[in-house]
Amino acid sequence: MIYQGKALTVDLLPSRIAHLVFDLEGSSVNKFNQQTLEELQAAVAKLQNTKIEGVIFSSAKSAFIVGADITEFIAKFSESEDQIMDWLEGGNKIFNNIEDLPVPTVSLINGFALGGGFEMAICTDYRIGTSGAVVGFPEVRLGILPGFGGTVRMPRLIGADNANQWISSGSHIKSQQAFEEGLLDAIVEEEKLLEAAVTLIQQCNEGKFDYKKIRQRKTSALTLTPIEMNVAFDSAKGIVGRKAGIHYPAPVTAIQVMKNAATLDRAGALEAEHKGFVKLAKSKVAANLVQMFLNDQFLSGKSKKLIASAIEIRQAAVLGAGIMGGGIAYQSALKAIPILMKDIVQEGIDLGMSEAYKLANKQVSRGKMDSARMVNLISNIQPTLTYEGFDRADIVVEAVIENTNLKKKVLFELEEQVRNDTIIATNTSTISVDELAISLKRPENFCGMHFFNPVSAMPLVEVIRGARSSETTVATAVAYARKMGKTPIVVNNCPGFLVNRILFPYFGAFSQLIHEGADFRQIDKALEAFGWPMGPAYLLDVIGIDTAVHCQEVMAAGFERMIITFDSAIDRLYERKYFGQKTGKGFYLYEPDKRGKPKKLQNPEAGSLIAGAQSGSSDYSDEKIIERMMLAMCLETVRCLEDGIVETPIEADMGLVLGLGFPTFRGGALRYIDSLGIAAFCEKADKYSELGEIYKPTEKMRAKAAAGETYYV
């Protein structure tokens, strides 16, 4: 034994080749936390002073190294620039020492080698992977760039063009592509990894392979002319910049860093990388994106604990076909959960199956599914006009139209057709789960399960806990959502639940602005510039003006502050049956593009139609528009947290990001309040207090402001 630690060990093989094995104690994966880096430094020092023929780096776990320990990033990024620079230089000194060992080195990649884990692999001379290996640099998704030599070694190994693509996209790359582009030197079966590495090192020592030539290339400047460099990097910056957008600077910064370093040796290139990393690490975007990653881990951990009491789901059913039912059925079948899809008319069944076929065909056309899998998927959906087979269902999702009396009738009928232990979930967006539960004999087996449309694309499912929902019921709904590949958030019952409750004060602020004379097109542009994927007018068209009017009535009945006392632009469109995309007319016009998707165009009738609902004409700055819209949304998010609709700020913010498309780089509504400061936020809100309760901070919020507290600790 050359070295023994809690994160890694080093043994000497009979061939006199050292074998360093990563195996972080107490963790299911290997990651570069501070302990691992310290032990790697100590182990490499031992290797530098031991007579060996080569070094093999491998993992005792199901993956190589998944990257840095992101839980350490929040504290690390709050340090000074000099401290972050010292950390980067210390880590890179270790990797440089590995690259400079006087013997051949090989990394064996099983499973994932991501971020710092892949930077570890590319500092060795060779890499051998399994067919299931996945590599890449996801750092840009956290608002940063590779900091342990990724931007330095990648372009020198596979060329500037490929490196630009790999690093700026943050993509996970499968083994075959990695092999074809030169990042893996061989692909072998897992049980042959060690043997292959020993053979490769022996061949290097016999002179059959020149590992020193590889090192020379990795530590020197790129061999590109100035014109070639400009073409490679500047063209990539333009393409990547348009795709990433102005709010996500990391992808373009990474390319600029590689360009700055292209003419430098390893030392100079690493210095350029460190400067780029530090600049990004100190930004609000990076802090928010790192927190988003931690939020996702929090939700996953909470769900895993909850589903311990779930019943096993072997058969599902959805009641009510059409677009929504077909989407739910498709998603269930996609994840190999057989599902019955019932409707009362054949037209509904046909529409539901058509939706499932459309979604499956789309996957086939994109190369993400073959025809055999598509056939298997569709065969997992059993359409029916009767309740035959419902006695086999472990969970049934009711997805009929959003009408309280109809849902009650259907739920009463459904309960008679299923087992006593079958879980029934209503896919309602606004109707009280407790109100619907009145129609059931077994309300403990009932909860809400709000899927967002389109089901295949939207990641969030709100699992609504009713007053009488059992823990098993909630846990089973969460388990089903997770099996379907969705992110479930458990919320307590109230009108609109979490997402729609927060959305309608936002729409209320929008209606008020238009009533005062603001232009809806300017409002859309201002909110899109703020980071929303679409402005409120466009969003209303997508949701459906008729749906919005119905939801508004429900929300106003539940919360007095959400009552709109004037004739709104939405009402005017509704009266003319301009329901948005579904009718081709709303705030905007919609025509199918070449792919059949609705293309947004200006509606020449909208201006004059809406003018009748305006009390005058007013000019607003984009800043004021954003302020009024975001104040209303953020204050309702605070109320949801204080009312216990969700347990934590993380769940509130993730509900908005996953369910509404709240700008990810801003981290959510409560995170956004923290960025402004609660006291400053309250001051902004107080300017509009005469506009109604939706602009009035709560007493608890004012108390937090006075105490200098934040929502995220």
- Could you give the order of strands across the largest sheet? 13-12-11-14-15-16-17-18
Spatial gap, N to C terminus: 44 Å
Percent of residues in β-strands: 5-15%
Give the radius of gyration.
28 Å
Strand count, sense and barrel status of the largest sheet are: 8 strands, mixed
Oligomer: single chain
- The count of strands amounts to 20
Number of helices: 30
Low-confidence stretches: none
Overall structural class, as computed from helix and strand content, comes to alpha/beta
Q: Would you give an account of this structure?
A:
The protein is 50% helix and 12% strand. It is an alpha/beta fold. Helix 3 (81-99) packs antiparallel against helix 12 and helix 14 (322-334) crosses helix 15 (346-365). The two termini are 44 Å apart.
Element layout with pairings:
Elements: E1 3-4, E2 8-12, E3 17-22, H1 34-48, E4 54-59, H2 73-77, H3 81-99, E5 105-109, E6 112-114, H4 116-122, E7 126-129, E8 134-136, H5 150-158, H6 160-169, E9 172-174, H7 175-180, E10 186-187, H8 193-205, H9 211-219, H10 226-244, H11 250-261, H12 266-281, H13 284-306, E11 316-319, H14 322-334, E12 339-342, H15 346-365, H16 371-379, E13 381-384, E14 395-398, H17 404-415, E15 423-426, H18 433-437, E16 446-451, E17 460-465, H19 471-483, E18 487-492, H20 499-516, H21 520-530, H22 536-543, H23 545-558, H24 569-575, E19 588-592, E20 598-602, H25 606-611, H26 622-642, H27 649-660, H28 669-676, H29 678-686, H30 699-706
Parallel strand pairs: 3-4, 4-5, 5-7, 6-8, 7-10, 11-12, 11-14, 12-13, 14-15, 15-16, 17-18
Antiparallel strand pairs: 1-2, 2-3, 8-9, 16-17, 19-20
